[in-house]
Amino acid sequence: MYEAIGAGGLENISYDIAVDVAQIVAGSPGRAAAAERIVAAAGLRARQPLDAASALQSETLLDGVQLLLLEAEGIAPALLEPLLIRLGAMAEARGVPLIATVAQAQIDIALGLLPASALLQCAPSDADRLGAVLAARREPVARLHDGMRDQETMRMRRFHEEVARIADSLSRLTRSELPERSASVRNDAMAFRMDTDTVETDAAEIRRVIRARRMRAEFFDGDLFADPAWDMLLDLFAAELEHRQISVSSLCIAAAVPPTTALRWIGTLNEAGLFDRRADPSDRRRAYIALSESARRGMERYVAAVKRAGLSLV
Question: Which InterPro entries did the record assign (predicted)?
Fold first, then answer.
């Protein structure tokens, strides 16, 4: 048995030792040590960590490796782009899970260059890191003995249930059995019209709703009202009315939750068919997020329904 001691939030958690091997590529010895601690707590063996330059030259980088971890913070910009391309391509070709922990300024380039199968984290907690490692293992054999696994399972179940609920709600608003309503976009006022009730909104109104939601944190603990999925839907809806594109890093800020939590929500909402990930045709290092067609129609009809009922947007 292995017991993690003094692991900054992972103390007294016991695991069965596994034979899986992890390769760590890090921008600094400190980042490598943080990753090694998490890998050990998950019951894996870590190879000698590599710096970015060595990883770019290594021909045996993934030989016998079951998990690849990239700690991108501290990697020079000139090395980061080729490293992301190489690690992403190698991991995808070998079928090796890749977990990339990046600084906030690196989110867009990482999302633009890494394959969709890579798991992206930003400023993760120890629990986030450990959960990602355990989830990435194709045949997880580590067993948590302090109830942490059950807590994490319940948390992720609630997370997916909430995404499913939002997706279902928007889907019901766009199903064909609903009365058909004409829809048109007015370029002059950035407003749309739906049905014969002449229900309109514009980006400024949606932005006021977002601002009002943010103001709650001035009077109450922000965690009490954390609703990242809806905050991101509102932000993307306002951006569409403004004819603007939103980067992943900007959307993370709009979510008003830790970056790793926001990235997890973005990935799940994309899988649920609410978000579309679009590459920048002029810069492959950048990716944008937009509402899917069904999500956009759902938001439009939600606004229309609220206004016809004489209620305020929230």
Answer: WH-like_DNA-bd_sf, WH_DNA-bd_sf
Which domain range does residue 131 map to?
2-146
End-to-end Cα spacing for the chain: 51
Letter for the amino acid at 97?
P
Tokens representing residue 16 in the block: 């069965």
pLDDT per position as a tens digit, 38-81: 999 888 999 999 999 999 999 999 999 999 999 999 999 999 99
Q: What is the pTM of this model?
A: 0.71
276-296 in b/e burial notation, b at 16+ Cβ within 10 A?
A: eeeeeeeeebbbbbbbbebbb
From 91, 122, 146, give the residue that closes a domain: 146
Domain final position from 124, 146, 168 = 146
Cα atoms in the 13 Å half-sphere on the side-chain side of 104: 10
Q: CB within 8 A of 224, min separation 6: which ones?
A: none
Same domain, 7 and 40: yes
Q: Going by C-beta distance under 8 Å and a sequence separation of 6 or more, which residues neighbour residue 205?
A: 313
The encoded tokens of residue 290 equal 């937009």
Q: What does the pLDDT look like over 181-216, one tens digit per residue?
A: 433 333 433 344 444 444 678 999 999 999 999 998
